[in-house]
Each structure stands twice: as C-alpha cells, then as structure tokens.
Amino acid sequence: MKNYKHILRLFCLSIFLIADDVCAQDKKTSISGQVKEAKNKLTLPYANIILKKVGDDKFSDGTISDDQGRFVMKDVNPGNYHLQVSIVGYMPFQKEITVGSLSPFIDLGIIELTEDAQNLQTVTVQGKSNDGISSKLDKKTFDLSKNTSQLGGSVLQAMQNLPGISIQDGKVQLRGNDKIALLIDGKQNAITGFGSQTGLDNIPASAIERIEIINNPSSKYDANGNAGIINIIYKKNKQEGFNGKVGLTTGLGAIWLRKENLPGISPQYQSTPKINPSLSLNYRKDKLNTFVQADYLYTQTLNKNEFSQRIYTDGIILNQQVKRNRTTTFTTVKSGFDYNPNDHNSFTISGFFNREKIGDLGDIPFFNSDYSVRNRLWQFIEDEVKYTATGSANYQYKFAQPGHTLSAGFNYTWHREDEKYFFKNIMPTFTGEDSFKLLSDEHVADLNIDYIRPLKQGRIEAGLKYRNRFIPTDMQFFPGINSPIDVNAGGWADYSEQIPALYGNYVYEDKNIELEAGLRIEYVKVDYKVNPNHNTYKSDGYKYFRPFPNLRFAYKINEGNRLSAFYSQRVDRPNEVDIRIFPKYDEPELLKVGNPTLRPQFTHMVELGYKNIWEKGYFYLSGFHKIVNGTITRIATIVPGNTIIYNIFQNAGRSYNTGGELLIQQELAPWLSMNISSTIYQNTINAFTVQNQYPVPTIYTMRKESILSGNLKWNAQLKLAKKTDIQLSATYLAPDLIPQGKIGSRFSADLGIKKQIQNGKGELFINGNDIFNTLKIKRDVNGNGFRLTSTDYYETQIFRLGYSYKF
User: How far apart are CA 730 and CA 738, in angstroms?
Assistant: First the structure.
C-alpha cells in the first residue's frame, strides 16, 4: 500500500513539473475558437478552417472543427492572416487577424455561420466519415453505413469484417483475445454485459452509427478489458426541425442443408426468416432536442449443428450431434432529450429499454463408434426472456474557455434473466423428464464526474467514478427418472461489487511531439454469498487496490508520417456468470460451471505503431506484446466412471500474446478503393496445474502450449453510376489455441450492393454473408481421460434485402 502511495505522489509531482516546464517555454502562437450556427447557437462539427497569408494569399495552416465545433491551429508564425471558415450549407466566414509575438495563445471565441438557404434547398449533403486509424493512432473508427455487405445484420455480424476483429463462439476477439470491454455510447450496458459479452448477435446494425476500436485506452476509461475497448455508437440525428428514418430488412438463412442429421431426430431449421423493421424520429427546436429510436428483430436460426466424437481412455467411443433450432425476438426502444438553456449549461436525459426472448428446440443423439446403436437421445426446450432498462442523466458545464468543461452523469441499469430449460432423457428402457428454472436480477448504479481543461499546448483530464452492482440469483432443479441433474447444486447466490476509481490524464503536444500520461487508481471489492447448503462451494470474494498507468508517446516526422509508442496495464475481473456456482445445461452431458474462487487476471502491454499517409491512402503497422498473469480460461474435466464433461473457469497462470497488425487503405480510382488488413500473433500459455472442485475435486495438468495464428481480411468498395455502391469482402482466420486444444482455420466471403433512390432520401440494398457457404468451426480438445473432436455446421450463409427512407 505504501508503494502505491509513493507511486501516486511521484506521478502527481512529475505531472506538475512537466506542466510547469511547458508553461515556461517560449512557443509559437496557438489559435483556437469554436464554430456555431448563428440562428440556434448549435455547435458545427467538421467545419473547414483555413489560414492564408495576407498579400500572397498562400495557404499557411488549416484544420477542421471537432464534434463540439472547436478547433486549434498550433505553431502559427507572427504575421497578418486571412481566416476562412466554411461548411456545406452555410455562408462562408472571413476575417483578417493579426498574430503577434507577445502572446503564445489566441482565443478567437465563437465564430457564427449563417445558413445558406438556397444551398440547403437544392443540395443533398453527404458527409465523408473518417474511417480508419485516428491521427493519434489510439483508435479505429468505422461507419457501419459503408459496410454494405453487412447491412441489415446484427452488430456481431457487422464487426466480423473490421480490421483486427475475429468472431469465435459468438464472441468478439481483438488480436485473438476476447477480454474486451464493450460500451454503448461510451458506457457499459447490461445488453452487452458488464465485463462480459452478450447480446451482440441480436442488436440490429441498423440502429448503430459507428463502431470505435480502442486497443490502448487512456486512464479515463475503466481498467477492465485487456484486449481493449469496443464502443458502439447509436445513431442520433441533430438536424433542425422534425426528421426521421424508417427502414425494413428481410432475409433468409440456412437455404441449403449442409450436413444431414443423424437418424431419428427432428429436422434442422431451413430457409430461416429474418425481419427487422426500424424507426428513428428526431425533433430539434431552439434549445431542445428530443429523439426516439425503435428496432425490432425477429429471426429463426440454426444456432448450432455440431457433429462430434468423444474418445475416452477406457475405450468408450461416442458419436454425437448437437442440433439447436433457435427463434429470437429482440425489441429495443431508446428515447430522451437534450436541453441547452444557454452557452454554458447542457442537460441530457435518456432511457433505454430492451426485451430479448429466445426459444430453443434441440436434439442431442449419442451413437456408438460405428453408428449402429443409438445409446440415448436428449431433446430439450429452452425458454429464456431477458429485460433491460437503463436510465441516464448527464449534465455538462462549459467554461468561457473553449474545451474547458465539467461533466457529471448518473446511470442506473436493471437487467433480468428469466430462463427455463426442459429436456427429455430418452433411453432404451425409460424416458426421464428434467427441468430447471433460473431467475437473476442485476442492479447497477454508476456515478461519473469528469473535468477537462485545455492548456496552451495540451490539456489535463481528471475524474472519479463509483459503481455499485448487486445480482441476486436463484436456481431451482426438477429432476426426473434417473436424472443426471445435481439437485443439490441449486439454491441461491448473491453477487455484490463496489468499485470507486480516480483518474488523472495529462496531454502535451507541439509540432513534433505528442505525450499522453495517465494513471487510474481502482479499489475493487467483490462479495459472493452462497447458499450454505451447497454441496461444493462456499461463500467467497476478493478485493484489490492498485494503480493502472498508461503512456502514449508519438513523434510526428512530418504531416504524413507518425510514430507512436504505448504502454498500459489492464485488468479482467471475473464476471458474475464466470463465478456462478450453478451448472448450466446447454448440453446435458457437457456442463458449464462457474468458480467463486476465480480471481482477476492482470495484463502489461507494450505497442509500437507507425502510420504513413499519402494523397489517396495510408499504411499502418504496429507491433505489440502482452503479458497476462492469472490467465482466465475454462478447463474441461471428467469424473472417472462418468462420460459427463465439466467446463469450469480457472486461473491458469501466465500467458503471452505477441504479434503485429497491418492495415493498407488505397483509392485505386475514383470508383474503386481497397483495404487489406492482417493480424499475426503468437499465443503462448505456460504449463499449469489446476483443480476443478465440481462435482468432486479433479486435478488437471497441461504442458506449455504455443501457436502462431492470425487473420487476413480484404475489402473492395466500388462506386458505380447512379449512386450505386458494391462491396466485396473476404476473411481468413488461421488455426488458433482454445482451452485445452485448437480451433481450425475458417474462411468466408461477403457481397453487398447498395443504391440510393428517391433523390437520395431512399436507400435499397441486397447482400449475402458467407456466400460460398464455407464457414464452419472445427475443434480438437484434449482433457483428463478424453479427446473431443467436432465440426459445427451452424447457419452462416444469410441473404438480405432492405429498404430505408429518410424524411
């Protein structure tokens, strides 16, 4: 604890000394200001600001305003200049300014632009988003409207074409790691999980404006998520008056039968329907902006169709199929208002409601080694409903200095998981009927306070956050004849989590150097209280207090070349479902069980990056190295004399992830652009020994494992006549490590066509995912006394047709 105090004092002292030294230096003049519209005083993002020398009218400097309308031009030499500010739809603004040598900082204040009424009536404005790597190399931003081959799908499907991302078992991976912090509009949400990944395959991509990938988050973000952060930004219209958008997408999946069922079970879902209507409404008048957005998704899916073989050391061989037909409905409504009473104060109140209903119908037959005898058949029905309600209140005070703000926000989330599971155990001599019921309520309250103050060359950021999270869970088992269900494993369990955190961040920038240094201090206390009668686990918990530093250093060689270096420490805290003590019977003879003795894993990461920009493209290259202590992974074991496999989370010791990432973007012609991305990494996990406690203590030892893996993605965008766009993309994923085994290579290709109609107000698209029907999952797992090999022919090929209209 004393060491942490010394680190904090040294950090604060160093920040003070650096800031003091910066202020003392004699630098060139920095010019700043803020662009607003004259009528309603609303900020104007992405306005063009140009500085030209008086006399020769040569270009001297330029920039664009940020999403708050603010701009900064640094290192301006003394002299007389013409300042020009312009944006499509507004009259240009011009002013002559003098830059002297006495003041290092000039604040031009608010620059107001007047609407060009004639231009607004005759021109449809299409902004060009800045897809790709940010100038700071700290994040990648992708506009989903450009992802034509994935329009109409889910957020999970839309992300599979993005650089650096791969999808495995319904989870997003960054550089081969699924320990990701998922945010919605910059905040954690029960829809995507607090420290886990849920719901991504059901969130319609039509509701999303863009996705941000942050591999090296600064200290203002939670320390959770060693692979980085994915921020999902919902659409929000800012136009004046009443406007909106309505859309409808429909589609079919599983059109062809990929592999026949084993004998004696119900048919697989085929020609599965997909229906996604959406509506977005917005009304902006004077100081008030109100909005509502609603999406509904209905889909049938062949969610799983896995054929596997289990070979046990005692000579038993089982051939098995897991077929799961799934029907899902997903309803989301988001509404709220923004109120700006004056230039200094702004309020935002919003609400978010979601209902997700999942119905599964499945069959799991077990045959002997030559398929001549069916040993048993499991048939199951799952009925699960999830509700999420979130309320947010945010306030921001803007000081007179542009960019100087104090913000406060409070968010409350309630999430209910109501799951019922029924399955029949059909044996040659009897039929058993078993069931269970799970009810879990999650309550999360977050309070945030953030402060930002611009400096002459940079800024300081500071803030605090407090989280209180409570999850009571109740599980009831109802066994039938000769049931494998452990009825004594039921009961109740209460999860509680408290996390106060403080952060400070300092940013410095001059002509060639960028420096960002931050420190986040977290105290975490987790209590997990368990039914005293539980047959295996007892109440447990953990706590820690530690700093999480981050550092980013960049050297700007020139306008087109930049080098960056990153260092950060991160943590992955076990989520409630990771320590949940109740067996989850997704498959009656392959059970997932939590582990309340599970502890956080801590990560050190170093990354070097280089970006080269030219007129019609750019090149980005990075190298990274991660060291993970207390690696969290699932370990599968069996109990002698029983064929049931128990999958239990454990801390497996130290692991490493070392590799590189490459991204090339190039416009080959006005009508053709391409990008190629590749991530190559070496995954290594040291030898370890763990003990699974459930259902009886079982020791498992694994030798050191290592594999070279990665992915390669190619995207081509064609812009044809009559506002028609075509996108073709292909993805290759190399073999990779999974707990106790390997996953095979995967390949898929997507195609999409989009056309604007009705004078740009309407849009029509058609696309196909996995158009060659090549994507399937092969696994090879080795446990204590068994080997499992499997291939999953689940639904991957989907064709969609969609239409949307803006008004």
Answer: 23
CA-CA distance, 489 to 634, in Å (whole number)?
19
pLDDT at 175: 78
Task: For residue 63, give every residue at least 6 positions away whose Cβ sits within 8 Å of its Cβ, in sequence order, or none.
Answer: 49, 71, 72, 73
Nearest to 417 by CA among 194, 671, 720, 256: 194
Per-domain residue ranges for the chain? 2-122, 132-806
Q: How far is CA 350 from CA 333, 441, 534, in A?
A: 11, 22, 42
pLDDT digits (tens, 9 = 90+) for 195-224: 566 667 767 777 788 888 888 888 888 888
pLDDT score at 191: 63
In angstroms, the CA 374 to CA 318 distance is 10
The list of the chain residues with pLDDT below 50 reads 1-26, 118-130
Residue keyed to tokens 């696994």: 779
CA-nearest of 461, 459, 493, 451 to 475 is: 493
User: Residue 14, SS3?
Assistant: helix
Q: What is the pLDDT of residue 47?
A: 85
Q: Are 684 and 702 in contact (CB under 8 A)?
A: no
If DSSP states are collapsed to H, E and C, what string results for 241-293?
Answer: EEEEEEEEEEEEECCCCCCCCCCCCCCCCCCEEEEEEEEEEEEEECCEEEEEE
Q: What is the pTM of this model?
A: 0.79
Q: The tokens 């107001």 sit on which residue?
A: 112
CA–CA–CA angle 182, 185, 187 (5° rounding): 55
| Backbone φ and ψ of 150, nearest 5° | -120, 10
CATH class (in words) of the domain with range 2-122: mainly beta
Distance of CA 51 to the CA centre of its chain: 39
What's the count of helices (H) and strands (E) in the chain, helices before strands?
Answer: 4, 46
C-beta atoms surrounding 3 within 10 Å? 9
The pLDDT value recorded for residue 172 is 79
Tell me the HSE value of 66 on the side-chain side, using a 13 A CA sphere.
Answer: 11
DSSP state of 115: B
State how far the Cα of 148 lies from the Cα of 752, in Å rounded to an integer: 5
Tokens of 560: 């087109």
CATH class (in words) of the domain with range 132-806:
mainly beta
Query: Token pair 């696309």 is at which residue?
Result: 767
Task: Give the 3-state secondary structure of 338-362.
Answer: EECCCCCEEEEEEEEEEEEEEEEEE
Find the helix or strand (DSSP H, E) in which 32 lies: strand 29-37
Q: How far is CA 238 from CA 233, 280, 592, 616, 759, in A?
A: 14, 12, 46, 30, 21
Q: Of 807, 795, 592, nearest to 154 (Cα)?
A: 795
